[in-house]
Design brief:
With 489 residues, the chain is α+β, with helices and mostly antiparallel strands. The chain folds into two domains: 264 residues, no CATH class; 179 residues, Alpha-Beta Plaits (2-Layer Sandwich), CATH 3.30.70.
Length: 489
Amino acid sequence: MTGPQLAQLANRRLTRAMITANVAGAAVVFVFLYYLLPIELPDHGSPRAVNIGVFVVFMVCACVVGTSIGNRVAAPMRRWLESDQPPTDADRRAVLRQPLRQTRLNAGIWLFATALFGGLDVFYDPRLAFDIATTIVLGGFATCGIAYLLAERCLRPVVTRAMTGATEPPPLVLGVMPRLVLAWALGTALPLLGVVLGLTTPTHSHAPLRTGGVLFLVAVALVAGAVAMVAAAGGVSDPIRSVAAALRDVGNGRLDAEVPVYDASEVGRLQSGFNAMMAGLRERDRLRDLFGRQVGDAVAQRALEHGVELGGEVREVAVLFVDVVGSTGMALTSDPQEVVRRLNAFFGVVIDVVTEHGGGVNKFEGDAALCVFGAPVDLQDATTACLSAARELARRLRELPVAAAIGVSAGTVVAGNVGAESRFEYTVIGDPVNAAARLTELAKESDGCVLADADVVAQAGGAEAGHWQRGEQVVLRGRDRPTTLARPV
């Protein structure tokens, strides 16, 4: 619904609500004066005719003045809606305070009526003036209470629109407790006060309460009380139900759940607080996703569960090192975008294959990747998984326009967070890492471009060792004993 359409809808609803509230207040005045306070008119003058004449003039003036002032009161809200623009803080305040301003307008009109008729009738009979003024005050109270409850409900779509995108909770205009007290006053206190006035008013002391008046008070207590309590309770239960439904959505994995904010009470702050909580959860999930993409899901999950601190632990792992062959020439003969596209395709295959076999990519080093099996998450028979991944990766990479060499080793490493308190990374350090890198360099000159330490192949379980054959012995840089090489069959 567009802003102008919503402005028209809100105007119609508010008009009906204010008419309803004032009719209810007028009914209270009529019944109180006719049934509960049967006023004995003085012999001199004609107060009834004067009151009726003044009442007619007052109603005409009240309608004209009330409509004019009401339009000015609602003008900020109407201008914002008709502009169909996002709300400012001033627009939000105007919308949230509109029910209270509308109620104040009604209160002003009824207070003026109290002073007018009380001052008019005091010349005839002070007691008459007091009874009429008291009755008008009660009718005004009923009008204002009903007007606020109805206006608050009518403006919910407007408040929802105004609070969309708000970063702060709505101000507390009228809290839950005052609303419940107001509903009690309309449905209970007002009828009981009528009974008290009917029993204690001197002009009525010699006559019993009329049956019609008692029945009216009972009807007010039952019907108006129920309506007032339903309106007040609905102002609490409706938002709570919406929050409860949204919580169920969150429990089902929906982090985009939100609830409309349409109440200027503690309940509105509950709605706003829920939306703020969901925004925080979405931000946390986004950071967690980014964190996982940077360091790997396993490392991210470990950090979230156990926290992070500098230091490491000794673990038995298998290491796979893969490096692009001829990356320097590729960078010289291809434009940068093409180089990046090929590398992304290469790393995509590496991540898929390593993840399928239970390992993780520990880090990217330019055009190379260090993959670890057995850290930070324990992996049963990491050696077999690493060797199988190496063979599968070699097969998959042949389908790409990128040549790569793979080296596999295994053994004891220190795995943990290395760096400084302000910035660190999870990595593995040890001879197997160095050996895998050296084997990768040799594999670039070897048929098949895949080499593994034959001792590691011998440790493989199942039929994996049968997919490899032993080869020559070499002394890897950094080692003082020969290493027997193994190649896939």
